[in-house]
Amino acid sequence: MKARVGKITRKTKETEVSVNVNVDGNGKISVKTEISFLDHLIISFAKHAMLDLQLRAKSNDGIDHHLIEDTAISLGMALDQSLGTRNSIVRFGHASVPMDEALAEASLDLVKRQFHKIELLLERNQIEGISKEDLEHFFNSLAQNLNVCVHIIVKYGKNDHHKIESAIKALAIAWRQAATLDKKQKGIPSTKGAM
Fold this sequence. Notes:
Shape: globular
Radius of gyration: 16 Å
Number of helices: 4
Number of strands: 10
Distance between the termini: 19 Å
Strand content: 25-35%
CATH class: Alpha Beta
CATH topology: Ribosomal Protein S5, domain 2
CATH architecture: 2-Layer Sandwich
CATH superfamily: Imidazole glycerol phosphate dehydratase, domain 1
Mean pLDDT: 95
Order of helices and strands: EEEHEHEEEEEHEH
Low-confidence stretches: none
Helix content: 25-40%
């Protein structure tokens, strides 16, 4: 089978982002975005999805929003690309992940029909130096560019850091399940014969 890898380079007047991902990796991860908490979230995603991931993101205009958005877009596009035709995958994944008092669930279908519903229940205006709206935008931009149907719901929690981390880990585990190759599945996992 062809290697399931994705490679995206995105260069604009605002940012420069490069992503190399191997879905069937072993968790070899190198991430540098200039924003510590963003690095942490992406590393957590890659670790729990068991990806090999190299991601570099550099701001050209000093605006965090642009860097966060373009990083999410590029990561989503690389993950989408890595699945290729999506032959012989499990297709569906679900995870419920606790982090102390917070609980998040993610459900995903790797069908090539983009839809997302994301409820993070964030309360503070800033979490670890990133604005609430930029964290929400990161999740939305990532979901839009994955080219999948995904629902990420924080069920409850008091600590916004815990809510965000449980959400990204739930997404990672659901992704890992859905992207896994299914030895029993021949071809496209759809009654339509197409994704």
